[in-house]
Amino acid sequence: MVHYRRIRLEGGTCFFTVTLADRRARVLTDHVDLLRSVLRRVQTARPFAIVAMVVLPDHLHAIWTLPAGDADYSGRWRAIKAGLTRELVTSGLPLARNDKGEYDLWQRRFWEHTVRDEADLAAHVEYIHFNPVKHGLVERVKDWPWSSFHQYVRRGCLAGDWGCISSGPAGPSRLTPE
């Protein structure tokens, strides 16, 4: 068995990409309420702060900060993936099984990147918020409903028209108010 090396930074902030096995699927947005419910349950049982997040039809991006003394983001993702799979099966969604008899909803692994500094954090938050536009799902960031972008706007960290073509493809680079 291959052992993957992951940085174990207690209390660290990491960027993640988690993807469905079928890249044509729309499971995450079609069942976003179930995903939210599972995410809340895992977050209650094993706390972490969500810095930014976007849910697309076949994958999601998130930035989390773990509590001091805790580096187990893999266990949290395992619980989220398993929990959503169980909820979908319970709701009657027919899911394919692989050769081992396991449900074949998720790609086995996930991508993780440890956030190095404030500039790295800002770049990854912008990437998350602009991702639905990048994938051609919407023309304006504000039109994608499953994004933490809307919380950033409510908190005054971003303008409602951030990321619009008229303000440039990436919008302003400052994510926090002066």
TrEMBL record:
Q: Which GO terms describe its biological process?
A: DNA transposition
Provide the Transposase IS200-like domain boundaries.
9-131
As one GO molecular function, the record gives: transposase activity
Query: Which superkingdom does the taxonomy of this entry point to?
Result: Bacteria
Q: What is the lineage of its organism?
A: Bacteria, Pseudomonadati, Pseudomonadota, Betaproteobacteria, Candidatus Accumulibacter
Output this protein's name: Transposase and inactivated derivatives
What is an example of a Pfam family matching this protein? Answer: Y1_Tnp
Q: Which SUPFAM superfamilies match?
A: Transposase IS200-like
Q: Which organism is it from?
A: Accumulibacter regalis
